[in-house]
Design brief:
With 587 residues, this protein is α/β, with parallel strands linked by helices. It folds into three domains: 216 residues, Alpha/Beta hydrolase fold, catalytic domain (Rossmann fold), CATH 3.40.50.1820; 58 residues, no CATH class; 229 residues, no CATH class. The chain contains 23 helices and 16 strands. The strands form three sheets. The protein has an eleven-stranded mixed beta sheet, sandwiched between helices. Helix 7 packs across helix 8 and helix 16 crosses helix 22. It is globular.
């Protein structure tokens, strides 16, 4: 009897324990599934699992493939759809950078080394936690289409996503000679691959992926804003001109994005020059002249086999300047007649492009970050004479002024005027970023940064994203200028995100100054974005810069003879020595 009682009691305890365990499982399973559903998203290739950013109630998904790795027989081919996955992808890590020169040490004097891998066609997404049908901000990084700048690993896009209540997509794409390479040996009859415009094709493929998938991340595929800085701004404008990108985006923001197309003939000549350098580097011959003769006697199949046998690093080593400054010089944006128009400037001037609302802008002192590397100035910086001799400082400032004015004419005022005159072109808004400008007369930066950087190229990136160290903020920002720059950054984030929402940067019921669209008549032209130590200084300007005005200003400049060589060199850089393009666009 006692034994039966004991057995009965034991059985009841076991049953109760099992019931309790089942109850705990029943309670926990929905919680676990609910939490997982917050981070999981379905894509056309399979499930991806993101990471919650608790600081601002956003979620990020990093390293999502939008195309197959462009390796082996897919190198220098148009991007292909990614392979479907059977298992969920933990999307919590940025992919490796595409092959490029990069610094492994933050010390300023350390050399650049070749880093990255060709398997790099991935994108990253940041979205508010409860995102639903929000505007999509499609970010194209800068870096001369030869490096990634800023690095995604340094750029927190969640701040802008939260502030602007929008979904941000940042993409990796082929750059350098893997991204733009035009040579007869690579032609297969496929118009896309034969164009040599692999950077642009990757961006188009990423836009197609966004169209197919972004709804599941809370984004609206019918409201996509292309935004890019420097070469990313150029690429955004290339997509404006590309018939293959029609309908894939609905607004454009180009930050300091000059339009610099090349001809396929430029690409062929440059590729042969690089191949000749590579033959010398690998010991195939002793000098470039002999290499050129060898190349001329090779068949196209032999040239292709040689090119495909080489690593991406072998191509990059043919650009020795990359080891010093990271970026390399090579032709981009080939006017092939399929991916990009045969005559890019002509397409804009005739209205045969993708017409969408636009923001075009530049920085007041774009070239201050470059001018310090010109030999005559770099020497006077090293010996300190630039800071002590007023004549040298005056020349330095004047060169920066006129070079930066030329950049503004080319990247902002001229395209705004041309496209605004086109039938059915929605409003175009322009800006000039002035924070930090003024050189020795500036008030928000300390010496010598006010002279060496100022309101230079890419200085606005941290303001757009609300970050401190993604771009030049790690050098320019300090506690003294915090209040004013934060106010300016908040204003810029509001303008940018409102434009992404509606195509008009002006938020309702706001104290921000009205940003008026560009007018080809007398009236509003450009929003000036500036701040003092404590407050933002934002106002409209009616001033327009034209090529003729700039030429006349230079002619009347007392220092013109000393300035002109710098302007000629910069003019050739901007237009790749194409006098025909200069005349067509600016004269």
């Amino acid at each position: 009897m006692k034994k039966n009682k004991f057995l009965k009691c034991t059985a009841e305890m076991i049953v109760n324990a099992i019931a309790s365990a089942l109850l705990i499982i029943i309670i926990m399973v929905p919680f676990k599934s609910s939490y997982a559903s917050v981070l999981e998203r379905q894509t056309t290739e399979g499930i991806v699992i993101g990471v919650e950013n608790k600081d601002n109630q956003t979620i990020s998904w990093k390293g999502i493939p939008y195309a197959r790795p462009p390796v082996a027989n897919l190198r220098w081919k148009s991007p292909q759809k990614p392979i479907k996955r059977t298992q969920a992808l933990k999307a919590d890590t940025f992919c490796q950078i595409c092959p490029q020169y990069a610094k492994l040490d933050t010390a300023p004097d350390t050399p650049q080394v070749i880093s990255g891998r060709e398997d790099c066609l991935y994108l990253n997404i940041w979205a508010p936690k409860k995102a639903k049908n929000l505007p999509v901000f499609f970010w194209i990084h800068g870096g001369g289409n030869s490096i990634q700048f800023p690095l995604f690993s340094n750029q927190d896009c969640s701040i802008l996503a939260n502030h602007g209540n929008m979904v941000i997509v940042g993409i990796n794409f082929r750059i350098g000679p893997m991204g733009f390479l035009h040579h007869s040996a690579l032609k297969t009859g496929d118009k896309e691959s034969d164009s040599g415009n692999f950077t642009i094709l990757d961006q188009i493929e990423a836009l197609k992926w966004v169209q197919a998938n972004i709804k599941n991340f809370g984004g609206d595929p019918d409201n996509v804003t292309l935004a890019g800085v420097s070469s990313g701004g150029q690429d955004a404008l290339c997509l404006v001109g590309s018939p293959l990108a029609k309908g894939l985006f609905h607004r454009v923001i180009s930050q300091s994005g000059s339009i610099r197309p090349s001809t396929p003939e430029d690409g062929e000549a440059h590729a042969n020059e690089i191949l000749s350098r590579m033959m010398v580097n690998d010991g195939s011959t002793s000098d470039k002249t002999k290499a050129a003769r060898i190349l001329a006697n090779m068949s196209l199949k032999e040239i292709e086999a040689y090119m495909r046998s080489k690593k991406a690093a072998d191509f990059l080593e043919a650009y020795p300047e990359g080891a010093v400054r990271g970026m390399i010089q090579f032709p981009t944006a080939f006017e092939d007649g399929h991916v990009l128009p045969k005559d890019f400037y002509g397409a804009l001037s005739s209205g045969t492009y993708n017409k969408v609302p636009m923001i075009l802008g530049s920085n007041k002192e774009e070239t201050r970050v470059f001018a310090r590397n010109f030999n005559s100035f770099s020497n006077s910086i090293k010996d300190g004479s630039l800071f002590k001799e007023p004549e040298k400082m005056q020349l330095f400032d004047k060169v920066i002024k006129y070079q930066s004015d030329l950049w503004k004419v080319m990247a902002v005022d001229e395209p705004a005027r041309v496209m605004t005159s086109m039938e059915n072109q929605p409003p175009i808004y322009t800006y000039q970023f002035l924070w930090g400008a003024g050189g020795t007369n500036g008030t928000v930066l300390t010496k010598p940064l006010n002279i060496l950087l100022g309101a230079c190229h890419i200085a606005e990136i941290d303001f757009v994203f609300g970050t401190d160290k993604a771009s030049l903020g790690s050098y320019l920002f300090n506690e003294k200028n915090r209040a004013g720059r934060v106010a300016l950054s908040n204003a810029m984030m509001t303008y940018w995100s409102q434009f992404a929402k509606t195509g008009n940067p002006n938020p309702r019921n706001s104290d921000l100054p009205a940003w008026l669209a560009w007018s080809n008549n007398d009236g509003p032209k450009t929003l000036l974005l500036d701040a003092g130590l404590q407050t933002a200084k934002i106002a409209m300007s009616e001033t327009e810069l034209t090529w003729n005005k700039l030429k006349n200003d230079v002619k009347a400049e007392p220092l013109q003879p000393k300035i002109q060589p710098f302007l000629d060199k910069w003019n050739d850089f901007l237009f790749r020595n194409h006098e025909k393009q200069q005349q067509k666009w600016l004269w």
